């Protein structure tokens, strides 16, 4: 547990959406968020596409939907992972 906290402290501060996207694309969130995506994506895929796949009626669009079922939880958990490290530009009037 302490090792995870230490790794998370290694997230560099960021301030713009582009910086946040770069952190995610660099893989800063991968280890933690891939596990979240695996669990949530599998549940969503079984619930939403399970019958279609089990019946052998899966089309290429079905597999796109399955991919999105994994991608969205990964992105959402990644944003949550890096959010505490965002530097906000606080300007006073």
Structure explained in plain terms:
The chain has 93 residues and is mostly helical. It has a domain at 29-87. It has four helices and no strands. The protein has helices at 2-9, 17-25, 30-54, 60-82. Helix 3 packs antiparallel against helix 4 (60-82). The protein is elongated.
**Oligomer class:** single chain
- What is the rounded Rg? 17 Å
Percentage of residues in helical conformation: 55-70%
Strand content: under 5%
Number of strands: 0
Give the SSE order as H and E letters: HHHH
| Poorly predicted runs of 5 or more residues | none
Shape, principal axes of CA atoms: elongated
Average pLDDT level: 90
Largest sheet: none
The number of helices is 4
Q: Which key phrases capture this entry?
A:
93 residues; mainly alpha; 4 helices; elongated
Question: Briefly, what is this?
Answer:
It is built from 4 helices and no strands. By secondary structure, it is mostly helical. The chain has a domain of 59 residues.
């Amino acid at each position: 547990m302490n090792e995870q906290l230490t790794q998370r402290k290694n997230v560099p501060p960021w301030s713009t959406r582009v910086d946040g996207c770069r952190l995610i694309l660099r893989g800063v969130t991968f280890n933690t968020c891939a596990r979240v995506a695996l669990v949530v994506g599998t549940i969503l895929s079984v619930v939403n596409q399970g019958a279609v796949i089990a019946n052998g009626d899966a089309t290429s669009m079905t597999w796109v939907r399955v991919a999105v079922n994994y991608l969205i939880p990964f992105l959402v958990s990644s944003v949550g992972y890096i959010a505490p490290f965002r530097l906000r530009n606080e300007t006073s009037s």
